[in-house]
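Hello,

Our lab assistant flagged a job as stuck in the queue for most of the afternoon. It eventually completed. Since we weren't sure the result was trustworthy after the delay, we are filing this so someone can double-check. Below is the sequence as submitted and the structure that was eventually returned. Let us know if re-running is recommended.
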Amino acid sequence: MMDSKDLTLKILALELRLYKPSHSIPIQQSDSDSESAPSKPNRAAVLVCLFQGDHGDLRVILTKRSSSLSSHSGEVSLPGGKREEGDADDVETAMREAKEEIGLDPSLVNVVTVLEPFVNKRGMIVVPVIGILSDKKAFVPAPNASEVEAVFDTPLEMFLKDENRRAEEREWMGDKYLLHYFDHESDNERYVIWALTAGILIRTASIVYQRPPAFLERTPKFWSRTVV
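-- returned structure --
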């Protein structure tokens, strides 16, 4: 007999498998015959790993980056990282990085879809990969201390609510946009989820719950720009 939790996650998986991103950016294959030095892939993937909490709410796994990292140290992020040459696709990148960073076994995650890519100011393409963790108890976080300081989770729906949230207006190349900051407390630790990570989670929550956020979003135009 299937319990209500399993049924809810199965329905969610079926619905998300029907989602088709409005656009995508193909992976650029390196030219193995080129005599020039291979360039670093300007592409990354992150895993938006959803599971059902004890109270029936959908939750998402997040990390706090190590304070010793050279970039974005101490910030909250989704598990993920840069594509490596051996990665077959964005899903493989996201799953490989999640295993390396927090010890998440890929066999526990049911990948259901990928979202539209986000592009940061430096031109890095970031592809969100949506996965469902049916058995949360089977996942015992094992953070890689050199990369991850903490592993925690938040309710996905909080990224649609105008609570514990603030926004700052920014401008880049004439485009005025809002950066959103969400405050969250877990195990007596306070975290701030903001910038691209917050943007990805607002997008994910809007798709999952099929409604827009309860606040003005005004995303940066460069997040959806075309990169050649």
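-- support follow-up --
The delay was a queue issue, not a problem with the job. The result is valid. Residues 1 and 156 are 27 Å apart (CA to CA). DSSP finds three helices and eleven strands in the chain.
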